[in-house]
Amino acid sequence: MRPLRSLILAFLATTIGPLHAAEPATEPAELSALRRDFEKRKSEAVRPVFSWYDAELSRLERSFTVRGNLDAALAIRKEREYSRSDQAAISPAAFKALLDDTRWRWNGSVPQDITFKRDGFLECEEWARQGFTLKWQVTGTNSVTYTIVKGPTAVGKEVVLTFAKDLNSFTGTNNDGLPINSSPRLK
After folding, report:
1. Most buried pick, 52, 75, 79, 114, via CB within 10 A?
2. Per-residue pLDDT tens over the stretch 33-48
């Protein structure tokens, strides 16, 4: 009986996949919310550790540079670069959770306050007044793409925003091809 049970379980596992990989349509909203909160809390908990480590590495690098030990300073710089790339390796879900419902100062040609809404819309009072509707999604380790889904011009246009590793600002190029200067997080 046991071999038959094992065979059935193996068959089910290979045909329907693991239970945790449920289709999004069948996943309860409570699970999605809990996972989003977990990813956000996990990333927020780790961020101060990366900041501390980066500051300590910077201090050590300066110290060895001043003392003329350039080999040690270079080794520390390499470790600092490596730790920064490791920090960037958060999951897309965690990155989205960190951005959900946050406000930022858009430093484009005309500064605006924007909010990355949890529902995937990018909110800006001035843009809404002009008739624009924008959606955003995580498209890279530290990048978000927003799309103009409705508006008087540029419907379908996509713009990529690149976030600093500490997630306290972003830069990019707006839909007119003009630079977006460093835009800080407000909340």
Report:
1. 114
2. 787 777 778 777 777 8
Q: At what angle do helices 29-66 and 70-88 cross, to 10 degrees?
A: 170
Identify the CA nearest to 36 among candidates 120, 96, 103, 117. 96
Please spell the DSSP secondary structure of 29-84, one letter per residue: HHHHHHHHHHHHHHHHHHHHHHHHHHHHHHHHHHHHHHTT-HHHHHHHHHHHHHHH
**Average pLDDT over the chain, rounded to whole?**
81
Beta bridge partners of 158: 147
Residues of the chain with pLDDT > 90, as a percent, come to 41
Cβ pair 131, 150 in contact under 8 A: yes
The pLDDT tens digits of the residues spanning 136-172 come to 999 987 899 999 999 999 899 999 999 987 788 999 9
In whole angstroms, give the CA distance from residue 88 to residue 86: 5
Residue 15 identity: T
Q: Would you say 98 and 44 are in contact if contact means Cβ atoms under 8 Å apart?
A: yes
Number of residues written out for the chain: 187
Can you tell me whether residue 182 is helix, strand or coil?
Answer: strand
